[in-house]
Amino acid sequence: MWQPHVFVVLFFLLSLYGKGADCQHPGYTLNAHRLVWVESGLCVEIPCKFTVPANRPLSTSVTGIWRKTDTPDIVAASTEASKVSEGTKGRFTLTGKVQEGDCSFSISNAQPADQGEYEFRIEDGSDGYSYSQYRLSVSVTDSPSNKIKVSDLPEPTISPGGELIAGKPITLTCTAHPAPQGCKGNITWGGRIKMTKLYNYKQEDQAGKSIISFTPSQREHNSPLTCTVTYSGVSTNSSITLKVQYSPSIKIRVSGYNGTYENKSLTITEGDSVNISCYVKSRPMADISCGEGQGYNVIKAPRERVLVLQNVSVADGVTYTCLARNTHGSVSETVSVTVEYAPRSSFISNCTSEGCRVEAIEGTSLSLLCSAESNPPANLSWAKTGQNSTDPLNSSSGRLDVSHVTTDNGGDYMCRARNKHGNSTVSITVVILYAPRGLTFNYCAVNGCFVEGNSSVKVQEGNSLYLRCDADGNPVANVSWVKQMQNGTITQISLTAQLNVTNVTAEHGGNYMCQTINRIGNTSKSISVVVIKTLTKDKIHLEGFMFGGIFVLLLAAITAVLVMRYKKKRRPPEEVEGSQRSPPNNYEVVYANIKRKTREPNMDPSPPNEGESPDKDLQYVTLDFSKLKPKSSPEPQETLYTEVKRK
Fold first, then answer.
1. What is the pLDDT of residue 447?
2. 45, 272, 392, 581: which is deepest, by most CB within 10 A?
3. Dist. CA 201–CA 203, nearest whole Å
4. How sure is the predictor about 9, in pLDDT bands with cuts at 50, 70 and 90?
5. Per-residue pLDDT averaged across 509-529, rounded?
6. Nearest CA to 123 among 188, 64, 172, 83?
7. CB–CB of 65/34 below 8 Å?
8. In whole angstroms, how far apart are CA 550 and each of 248, 545, 616, 637?
9. Average pLDDT for residues 406-426, to the nearest whole number?
10. Which first-to-last residue range defines the signal peptide (predicted)?
């Protein structure tokens, strides 16, 4: 049986401490047992203290090293930066605080190879010192019967207990209870997580204790933490499960839709349905709010809220917020919902109704701007519509610009808005306004009424005169007729396009002007009306007799010429020669007597104007008998005048 009062570990302590080196290196001293015995497989704690000169104090970064003198290997060090021999790693531990002058170290599971001399060295920046004068001798004895058993080892204790709070630093201590053999053991930490990756992790080992400090997070909740104590190659441990309280965190999940969800933005098509899930992780459980009380359909679960949107419309395209709160804080996440739809409510600037119209003055500019409600924005295009075709027009961003308007630009136009979800159209009629132009004169086909060159009209006195003035203009022009009087004044004679005179007299002759006007401008064109006088019956009879007499005289002359030629051909040649030698000396004079016809009763009885010249009624007729003379001896021509006097 093991008796606690029996010491298995035997120390043979030399009472003499080295004191002769002070004269060589004043201020550097080391106090420890010069000789230590330990049984194989057991452990031993070796107390040690050292000093340095007062003018060279130790810094917080000073490193203490124990090494075996017969090898260059380091067996124990105060920092992990020093490379410790694999044969002693985990068994030799520098347990003292070097910066406080403590160089104590322990040996567990002692091995025969551990026997030998050991010396201590300090390194502080560029300075270092080896306490070679104060070497320590370790002797390992064989005692197999004293091996430590697991059943004899007490479990370590981890404190404090209770729950942790995420983000709040915590310090845990593992205490190793001494083994019955007197070994305090070597302490290590472990668990499901890698300890060195804990936030603000720090470990501090003391004799029989190991202290760790870290800041827990939500990830460490329900993670095991184990403290293991090793006594001479035999270990025991104790574990706890970390309970971490933390503020809420939210994860958004979207399902049941045809669209895209990226960077907290959801895009869906009008008419679709979607489920937006707000899943909350927290400890303790959080209160969750996600659209309740706002008219939305919300499905509730212990850690989740599901917002159900069915047959979405443009009004559903808003930002939805999920809020979670517990004793450690609150958090919110948002989802921006964008609803896409086909173009609608197409609109043309300055157009307030379907099938409206816009007016533009010829020669000016015209700009038509088309817009439409749609998501994504629609591609807008213009076309001029015809009976069987639609011609596309160049336009930019829904704007159709015409820099110089002509009548060809008039007509029906259509704006089409199109995106990936559909299209919409709107139409407008463009009316081109222009001043009157292209004036033309039209006339009726009445006896004695005609048009010469479309600039003058001759009409017989007493007949009817009908003139019409037509002009091309938009809006339709107002047409009127004016006449330029002999005194230079202008008199308006008609307020319509027609000029109608049923009984033309000499007073109706003159220059007429057709005037046209609309709200864009005006123009005019002139025409001359010539009135032809009608002859009286006396003049008609006199002129008939005169022309009849002239006709008779001409006919008689022609007959005489023909008779003479006929006789000439029938005479013998000698007669012809004689006649050539003795041409006749006398000519037969032909008179044409024109008698005045008795005046008809209905002729004008008024006498001629006394102021007229008496020669006014003389008529002259010329008779030419030159062709009756022989060709060999032509005689000078004589003119026969017949005087006709009007009584």
1. 52
2. 45
3. 7
4. very low
5. 92
6. 64
7. no
8. 137, 9, 18, 20
9. 92
10. 1-23
pLDDT in tens, 427-479: 899 999 999 998 888 776 455 455 555 678 888 888 888 888 889 999 999 99
Decide whether 150-242 matches 245-340 in CATH topology: yes
Give residue 184's pLDDT. Answer: 64
Q: Could you tell me the residue ranges of all domains in the chain?
A: 20-146, 150-242, 245-340, 349-433, 444-532, 537-628
Beta strand spans in 20-72 (E) = 29-32, 35-39, 44-46, 48-51, 63-68
One-character DSSP codes across 291-343: STTTT-EEEEETTEEEEEE-S--GGG-SEEEEEEEETTEEEEEEEEEEEEEEE
Instruction: Provide φ and ψ at 363, rounded to 5°.
Output: 95, -15
- In angstroms and rounded to an integer, the radius of gyration of the C-alpha atoms of the chain is 70
Alpha helices in 27-137 (DSSP H): none
Sign of the Cα torsion 81, 85, 91, 95 reads negative
Lowest mean pLDDT among 194-203, 349-358, 400-409, 590-599: 590-599
Which 8-state DSSP code applies to residue 590? -
The per-residue pLDDT for range 200-213, each reduced to its tens digit, is 777 776 667 888 98
CB 244 within 8 A of CB 162: no
- The CATH classification number of 349-433 equals 2.60.40.10
| CB of 398 closer than 8 Å to CB of 415 | yes
Apex 155 CA angle, 143 and 46, nearest 5: 50
> 3-state DSSP helix/strand/coil percent for the chain, to nearest 5?
15, 45, 40
The C-alpha atoms of residue 439 and residue 432 are separated, in whole angstroms, by 19
pLDDT in tens, 99-111: 999 999 888 778 8
Distance between CA atoms of residues 321 and 337, nearest Å: 11
Query: What is the distance between the alpha carbons of residues 85 and 67, in angstroms, rounded to a whole number?
Result: 9
- Give the SS3 label for residue 14: coil
- In this structure, are strands 422-443 and 356-361 parallel, antiparallel, or unpaired? parallel
| Of 62-66, 438-442, 479-483, 619-623, the least confident | 619-623
| Band (5; pLDDT cuts 50, 70, 90) | very low
The CATH homologous superfamily to which domain 20-146 belongs is: Immunoglobulins (2.60.40.10)
- Identity (one letter) of the amino acid at 389? S
Distance between CA 516 and CA 474 in Å, rounded? 12
Domain 245-340 has CATH 3.30.465.10: no
Q: Please, which residues have CB within 8 angstroms of residue 6's CB and are 6 or more apart in sequence?
A: none
Quote the DSSP letter at residue 619. B
Helix (H) or strand (E) holding 136: strand 136-141
Superfamily of domain 150-242: Immunoglobulins (2.60.40.10)
Which segments within 486-532 are labelled E, that is strand? 490-494, 498-501, 510-517, 522-532
CATH of domain 444-532: 2.60.40.10
**468: amino acid identity, one letter:** R
Percent of the chain at pLDDT > 70 equals 75
Closest CA to 206 of 59, 104, 109: 104
Question: In sequence order, what DSSP letters do the residues of 175-231 get, joined into one string?
Answer: EPPPPTTS---EEEEEESS-GGGSEEEEEEEETTEEEEEEE--GGGTT-EEEEEEEE
Within 8 A by CB and 6+ apart from 56, the residues are 27, 127
